[in-house]
Amino acid sequence: MSIRHLILVTGLLVVLTLPVKAQDSGALQAIRSGNGLVAQGRYELAIKQFENVTARDGDAYAQATYNIGVCYFELYLTDKALGFFERAIELNRGNYPRASYALGVALEEQNRLSEAVEAYKQAMRSSHGEFAAATFRRGVIAAKDGQIEKAADLFRDASKHPGPQVPNSLNNLGVMLARMGKLDEAEKQFANALRQTGGAFGQAEHNLQLCRSLLVSAANRTLFADLKLASIDPTR
């Protein structure tokens, strides 16, 4: 049995949702229509709907711009998506946590990791520390870079904020603790992750069983080390 077989969750059960607040009824209708098309996977048509929202529509324009970025990202046109995410953040004067998070995801996909980390930090700053999905992603980047203790701290922090990132954060915290040799603490985190999902978390279940096997093996090694070898020949 090896700690290498513990599963680190790199995905996150958070989708790039599309905000629908808008001041103008026409802009609101365009965003709603676009959202409906996105739900159907018809991204090109959704973009055309979002393009009906203009700078005259106030805050709705930033939201439509972000939504277009989501569509391009889903179409694997990441370079174009990046431009729209950056523009949406600019339109909201740097205060657009979801767009900053999306920017980080897109940058991470292009392996521009230092830039992705800065985008995730911006998401946290503009949300006053509440956009914990960004902290989770920073933890994944740190873990892949071998920064185990830093990753553990980030996953621990992410797990303290309500949201869909909590089970994954707990699982990954367990992996980091196990890699640090803290199997007892790791076991608790895997069990907690499993409870958070009502038992429906395959990676956490795998990790919990493996961790318990490792704990038993460690205990057995300790017992064997305590066995005393007799030095007196009983036949004499």
In a few lines, what is going on in this structure?
This protein has 236 residues and is mainly alpha-helical. It has helices at 25-39, 43-50, 59-74, 78-91, 97-109, 113-126, 132-144, 148-159, 166-179, 183-196, 202-226.
Explain the overall architecture:
With 236 residues, the chain is mainly alpha-helical. Helix content is 67%, strand content 0%. The chain contains eleven helices and no strands. Helix 9 runs antiparallel to helix 10. The relative contact order is 0.10. The model has no long low-confidence stretch (mean pLDDT 86).
Topology:
Layout: H1 25-39, H2 43-50, H3 59-74, H4 78-91, H5 97-109, H6 113-126, H7 132-144, H8 148-159, H9 166-179, H10 183-196, H11 202-226
Radius of gyration: 24 Å
Poorly predicted ranges = none
Between the first and last Cα atoms, what is the distance in angstroms? 43 Å
Structural class: mainly alpha
> SSE order, as H and E?
HHHHHHHHHHH
The amount of helix comes to 55-70%
The total count of strands amounts to: 0
Q: What's the shape?
A: elongated
Tally of contiguous helical segments? 11
Characterize the largest beta sheet: strand count, sense, and whether it forms a barrel: none
Mean pLDDT, rounded to whole units? 86
Top keywords for this entry?
11 helices; 236 residues; mainly alpha; 0% strand
